[in-house]
Design goal:
alpha+beta; three-stranded antiparallel beta sheet; 13% strand
Length: 62
Amino acid sequence: AHFDPASSELTNIHGELIPKLDAAAIRTALRIPEMDNAIVVSRDQAQALFDQDSDKYKARVA
């Protein structure tokens, strides 16, 4: 999905416009205010990033 902050339009990979209500719901669900800054990662990459961050957090707390 691509978010255009100028028009607040969200398009899918086929370039088709996603209705504004759906776009808002998607942004809310993803908790990403500006989707143009979003980085799409695979589930494994996301888990690795989470593990990395939680290791850093554990190190700080310890």
